[in-house]
Amino acid sequence: MAGGAIPTAAPQLAGGYLTGRALIYPLSLVISLFFLWGFSYGLLDVLNKHFQTVLGITKLESTGLQVMYFGGGYLLFSPIAAEVLKRRGYKLTILMGLTLYSLGAVLFWPVAKSADSNTNGRAVFGGFCACTLVIACGLATLETAANSYAVVIGAPESASARLQFCQSWNGVASFIGPLIASKFFFTGENQNNLTNVQYVYLAVACAGAAVGVLFFFAKLPEVSEAVLEEDQAGHVAQGSIWKQWNMWFAFGAQFCYVGAQVTIATFFINYAHENGDITTAKGSNMLSYALITFTVGRFVATGLAVIFSSEFIMVVYSCCAIALTAYVSAAPRGIASVGILIAVFFFMAPMYPTIFAMGTRNLGHHTRRAAGILVMGVSGGAVFPPVQGAIADAKGTRISYIVPTIGFVYVLGYVAVNWVRGGITFMAPKAEESTVDEITYDNEKNDVIIEQREKKHNEMA
């Protein structure tokens, strides 16, 4: 996947943005990336409980996976990915991400095999954390490229809805992960060992390699920084990237949101077991139902974003998430509290793509670096779980759910300020009349020639 020269140079968009059928091919390829990291994330949360059982580690120690995944990968590697994206473009960045992703997944095999002869569970767990770090570096690279590409390839007015749609497929994959884990990790003769972990991650590596082959031979239209400046003329932010305050506050919102999302899922099975008297296997199934709810929430938010403003949707959803997580942290024992926790997944579903679209809005040539900075916000997933894990070990899992509540409060503050600054609009903005509606490939130069046309009433004017 990484060797040799790319057979065709990446075509360049000469101006404007894609629309209609022209968007289908590039977005379909990008959606495959969202699916890959959604599946990987879905497996991660289930591994916490499985490693607690098989390797004899504590809840707090098990969050080392999240620290490596979100802290090591996303916090440390996202700036590198953003620089590669700025210098080499989307296609090469995506190929680099897929290479790291597949490599990390393959390394799960020898680490899992080592558990057969090593009685030191913590040492084996350290090996899994190292593999997770490599996977996370790949996923941070993919997220930096894919989220940014989904935003800039089409009309700016529909950027949030478009990213919501792409992220919805991330949700589809994230609930498939726990379903597979509940069948292979927690049942049968291998429920108390790591044999099935080997085979699941070998399949993950093969899937990553297959997608890499598709991208290697694909003609993926590039969006140059000159085009970004041209498209946002009159609206682009001035000054250095350090002075783009909306982007930096968006980073904070992304940090708090992802931290809340990750820690809610990380301790979901523990909460279901302790508060709902549910078995581990059933708890894993219920986590899948929660992630299905999350996916439905993404698709619903995609439809709502076409009608209502993104800021308005986020204010409503943030308020609901705060209320529900606060209730979960104080709820009495019983299955009803687990149902409320599942409902939280619906309301936090649109937060990541909406914050990303808001944070990269009107940044011109800063867009690619801003994408890397906002993906760094995913590192919140490395901070919140250890904090909640420490509280869970000391006071109980139920009380520890006050941690994500605090994260949602910051998210509400960010989107509310943006909503007020934007004039408190309830309806989605209308798209501008000028779009790109035709693409043709020049076979000799391998360029994409964009023909911009005005709508009929503009032509008649």
TrEMBL record:
What membrane topology does this protein have? Answer: Multi-pass membrane protein
Q: Which UniProt keywords apply?
A: Cell membrane, Glycoprotein, Membrane, Transmembrane, Transmembrane helix
**SUPFAM superfamilies linked:** MFS general substrate transporter (SSF103473)
Q: Would the keyword Cell membrane turn up in this protein's UniProt record?
A: yes
**Where does it localize?**
Cell inner membrane
Recorded GO molecular functions are: transmembrane transporter activity
Q: Which InterPro entries match?
A: MFS, MFS_trans_sf, MFS_TsgA-like
- Give the residue spans that cross the bilayer: 22-44, 64-85, 92-111, 123-142, 163-186, 198-218, 248-269, 289-307, 312-330, 336-358, 370-387, 399-420
Name the principal localization, coarsely classed. membrane
An annotated GO cellular component: plasma membrane
The lineage's top-level taxon is Eukaryota
What is the official name of this protein in its record? MFS transporter FHS family L-fucose permease
Per the UniProt entry, what species is this protein from, by scientific name? Fusarium acutatum
